[in-house]
Write a structure and sequence with these properties.
Blueprint: E1 2-3, H1 5-19, H2 23-38, H3 49-57, E2 68-73, E3 76-80, H4 86-104, E4 106-114, H5 121-128, E5 133-139, E6 161-165, E7 172-176, H6 183-191, E8 201-202, E9 208-209, E10 222-223, H7 228-250, E11 263-270, H8 278-294, H9 309-321, E12 323-324, H10 329-340
Parallel strand pairs: 3-4
Antiparallel strand pairs: 1-12, 2-3, 4-11, 5-6, 5-11, 6-7, 8-9, 8-10
């Protein structure tokens, strides 16, 4: 089932407008969710639209206004996001950070009390198109599903880290969780009655497992840190780093009362021109990319790819042939469309 991406964005925007979100915020949220699917991140694309609409319906997402400025220095800011839509907040932070990075060489914006920010990879191309490098990390202090290495009890969310930088051949887009897998994927596979590709979760007795059902049992298991039981101390360390960059720098996190599904965000823009120069940066990174591409692939791999290449290829094809959505997406959105008498998008022939 493939759909015209333009029609999908219009459909998503119409639903968000009907829910009460302003035109500019609806446009931004719809664009970021669509970009997630275009890049192949199907758990963090339009699959989030129905949950977002529910959050609006029960009053857990702020619809109007601007973030509050907590602190403001030339190259460092902290915002209180006031639980405004996460994608819109991140894009607003990017505008400010890029503008200041052109002056100062770098700028960091940390956002507390943002709503969920969707797919991290969906933001980077907008920065790389302007010759910038961007780091984007997030945590959610309102929930815990990932155990620290050596522990049974969850402390973290998957705490994703992402980065994007320009090269002559296109941007490099890195987007990884500091846990072995994500809440979205484990929940989806559990609902489908399937198993994970590897032992990415752990039951309440500390045994690794491929069965996501262990996360929904009583007592519940946890998602393992990146590296699993063998080297999860690495993922554990990265999770702690994300907590420091988000909740620590924001001064708001797990030590505070939970407020609901959301995010604490660390966003940093670096202007290569202020360092060794953009041309020199691209020369170095193009050379590294070429070395990676030239590396002989193992027998099970056709060719070595640069992070983001497959997603960008998927996007290019979808823009021409149509975008296929996960089968669960449209059934979740149909009741909302029926409620507001919004026409469902037609399948691309």
């Amino acid at each position: 089932m493939a759909y015209d991406p333009v029609e999908l964005k219009q459909f998503a925007q119409a639903l968000l407008l009907a829910a009460g979100l302003s035109a500019d915020k609806s446009d931004c949220v719809a664009e970021v969710l669509l970009e997630g699917d275009l890049l192949g991140h199907t758990t963090h694309g339009l699959a989030l639209l129905a949950p977002y609409l529910n959050e609006i319906g029960v009053g857990r997402m702020t619809l109007e206004g601007q973030p509050s400025v907590v602190s403001d220095h030339p190259a460092a800011l902290v915002w209180d996001g006031r639980r405004l839509p996460g994608p819109w907040l991140v894009r607003q932070a990017m505008v400010v950070a890029i503008e200041r990075a052109r002056i100062n060489g770098t700028c960091t914006v940390v956002i507390k009390r943002s709503h969920h920010i969707a797919c991290l990879a969906a933001y980077h191309a907008w920065a790389t198109q302007q010759g910038m490098m961007m780091l984007l990390h997030s945590s959610d202090a309102n929930s815990a599903s990932v155990a620290p290495f050596g522990g049974l009890d969850p402390v973290f969310t998957p705490n994703p880290i992402s980065a994007g930088w320009p090269t002559v051949g296109g941007p490099v887009l890195v987007d990884i969780s500091t846990s072995a897998t994500t809440n979205g994927l484990t929940s989806r596979i559990h609902k489908e009655g399937g198993h994970l590709p590897a032992a990415w979760v752990m039951d309440a007795q500390g045994q690794s497992s491929r069965d996501p059902a262990v996360l929904f049992q009583k007592p519940a298991g946890t998602i393992l840190p990146l590296g699993g039981l063998d080297s999860g101390h690495k993922g554990y360390g990265l999770s702690l780093m994300v907590e420091a960059l988000t909740g620590g720098l924001a001064g708001h996190g797990r030590a505070d009362p939970a407020e609901g599904w959301g995010a604490t965000v660390f966003l940093q823009i670096l202007d290569p021109q202020a360092f060794g120069g953009l041309a020199a940066f691209e020369r170095q990174m193009n050379h590294v990319n070429a070395q990676c591409h030239a590396s002989r692939p193992v027998p099970s791999v056709r060719a070595v790819r640069i992070p983001g290449e497959r997603g960008l290829m998927h996007k290019a094809q979808a823009l021409v042939s149509g975008l296929g959505l996960h089968p669960s997406v449209m059934p979740m959105l149909e009741p909302w469309a029926h409620k507001w008498r919004i026409e469902m998008p037609s399948e691309k022939g």
